[in-house]
Amino acid sequence: MIWKIAKKEFLLNLVSSRFVIGFLLCLFLIPFTVTVNIDDYDSRMRVYRVDKANAENSLKYVRVYSYLRPEVVKPPQPLSIFCQGISGNVGNRVKIWLGEKPLFATGKAAIRDNPLLNSFFSIDFVGIIAIVMSLLALIFTYDACTREKEEGTLKLQLSNSLGRYKILLGKVLGVYLTLLPIVLFCYILSTILILHSPNISFSAGDWGRIILLFFASLLYFTVFVFIGLLISTRLKSSITSIIVCLFFWVFFVFIVPNLAVYMAESLKKVQSYDNLQYVLQDLDKEFQNRCDEYYKTLEPPDWGMNWNHSSDLYGGRILAGCSSSKMEHWRKKYVFSVPLRIDYADKKWNLQKSYLDSLDEQRNFAEMISLISPSEVFRLVSASLCRTDVASHYRFMDRVRRYRDEFIDFLRDRNIFSSFIYFTPQPQETFMTADEFISIRTGGECKNLKELNEWRDAHGGSFMKILRKVEIPGTTYSEYPFLDLSDVPVFRLQSENLLAGLKQVFLKKVAGLIIVSVVFFYLSFLSFLRYDVR
Amino acid sequence: MIKTIIIKELQNNLYSLRFHISFLLCIVIFAVGTIAFLKNQDAKMQEYSKYRAEFRNELKETAESNAGKLAVNRRAFIWRPRANAFISDCKENYFPNRFIYSAYNVYGFELGPGGTNPFLSTFQELNWSFIVSVVLSFTVLLFTFDTISGEKETGALALTLSNSIPRATVLLGKYISAIITTMVMAIFGIVLSILIVLFSHKVDFTSAVLMETLVFLLLIFLFLSCTAAIGTLSSVIAHKSNVGLLISLTFWLVFVVIIPNTAIFWANKIFSIEHADIISRKIYAAQEEHKKSAPPGSASSSDENPFMPEHKLRADLETKLNDAEISIKNAYYQDMFRQLERTRLVSLISPIALFDYMNEAVVGGGYARFKKVWSDLHGYQVQFLQFFKTIDAADPDSPHWYNPWYDYSTTKKPVDFEQVPLFEEKPLSFAARFSFLRNYLVVMILYIGVVFSLTLVLFLRYDVR
Asked: ipTM of this complex > 0.95?
């Protein structure tokens, strides 16, 4: 009997205008959204390839270790075509610095070449499923009882010896028979589009996660089927029922997601990033002061001239052609400053970590509020399944920070910080005293620094002209080969198994959706048992 | 007669469940949104004041130690949280939030990590604009989807039209009553929100904000007229109210979800601009050209001797490098502006997008604000450079070889911080706002005219049997 009712409901639904419009809506929206997201994935893949090549190239052209800053570039997640999660908010590149632990990934703007376009939001497959499937579930169930009551057929059915639970189950089954092909159609259509896209390749684990996503979608629309059913069993007229259903829909799908984040922003305060930067700058100044204090204790070099020299604000320096005492002076500076820089990175990290924690606390709060909406739960579950959730990002950043530690250990083990190769590619045996250097370069015109200074004062304040008289091979850094970095640790992305990182999601969110479905069904059942069919 | 129809429809609407639910929802969101805004604004202002104090301190320290550094150091201007953002935030959290400049140039704008929490999903603040564009647009559709088809089903329409009432009058009466019903909700919500703002004493409700509120109310009227016309059109297209509802919902989904959320796709497909990495390569190539043709010594420097002749070569080279970067970047920024403006034109199909853009003009936020800051900052930079050149000219120890990157060959003397010009953002003038608003306003009025005329034509041929 249940089957007969289900079949009747299914056939009625099939010829209804709501089925036609719903199906057409999916037929238009799903391929369009998937195409948009495939296009977005392609452009992120293009950016990834450019960034990756740049990162590799930058490592090829390093002559000293003080400029060695490996860059980790994260490839875009193929499953982000289904659910973008926070992947659009966080970057894809992390540079490894000695003076700072990685806090955020950069490179977000590169995905969208025009940062002004960020004022437009984007929607993914999961977003469309969350909006359309919930709407269809409600549209197919809002009049499950009310319509038949209005038409008088419910009274007629119940005048037979038919259990009310059978009618209810039959109706639920009928809605499933109607909606299941639509959901299935959405997934099949998306899969076909993805398979036809040359730049996307899914692993077996990815396909497994898509199947899990399909089941999550079914669970999600089940919740809305039961919400619609409950409303239909509680109200007397179809028009009232659809109005109530639609307000629930707008509330869950459009208001709660915005409300949750906005409330979290208002109630959970986070220090501004720019103010954090000022605090970090204070630590940088403190570090610089300690270095300066130490440098004052060092014996000054015989000649302060940096002959062939380049440096940056982050401790990078490359030198060639300086006097041996100047080279030794710099070596002593680095022996002191590099470990101290790393220590200060740890000090800065304490502040950065508490900033990250406050961001996370704010996110947790938003997530907690958003749990009242099944669509938000579905989006969170989908982001976890598609590895675009916050937890996946945290795992990546933790791995990058561990990689930084490995990189520093590698340099420490080889005593790089205390060796000349940290800042000069020039072999130690080719270092000269200042007088030797001056004498050769000036072609013997000046024998020492005193004579050179006298020459400068007599010739307009610059001695560069006389110092260029005779070239000394090996005194410019560009003459030296680039470092062989084959033994430097390389960052590798760990491949994750099918269920990695999903335990909590299944235990909390999926279980929550199941419980909510059961509760709504039970309430619908109780309500229908007492339903006044007159 | 039209008055009678409007009164009857209003009575029907005001006593309906949909009015009660939507009114409650609307009022609650207005209240919650405003309270959340006040708390958020308070925290944002505290952080911003702290930031500005730090910024001034850093500027003061630099000015009092070395005017040359003051000129060459690149700084970021970050705009202040807007006090009238409870009307509309104009998605400013997602706009580039820092403008990089020095005395020598305005280098660009960035979307730094300081905007919003990157671990939160993108969202819209619960301000008046959001409530009107999402909740009230939805509500007005609920009041109009069955305005014709619903009456046809019950037979009331045939009865009404059996009297000597022109169809246009019936349609207009129903249309106006739907607008008035939703306007009532909007006005109640806005009054409640204003009362919360006034009693909180956290934000000044100035006469300018009052004016903005009145213009905003006018825009709400236009927007709801447009949405009501679309709902009535759905009702006239369909012969059954449930089909009318589905058509209305489809329109709403397309306008609220599809068009605004796929704009980036259209921007990249139809109005594509060059990729950022290609621009970087162009800048690099142009700069390399200058470096290759630079005379020997152009990279030399000395901290001790500003008059070293090589400093002039270096200043010339670095000015050329700077100009090369800026000319390529400025052309690229113009492409970005054009891309955004054209994409906005495409998204005008959605009345919700149109309403959002008009709100920018009303509150002086979003892209209108961005363009104003961008333009004003260029004016300020010229003034700042002029100030620095005057200081530098008075220093006999400076060779006056202006280098946009380093202070080797310009004055290194301290300067009184009080004399240093500071950039302060000025609000958009009413004339500028109106000029920004004008075209959107024309489009909105045309939109309403076209949709309502179509509805009227269809209704004149509507089979009421």
From this structure: no
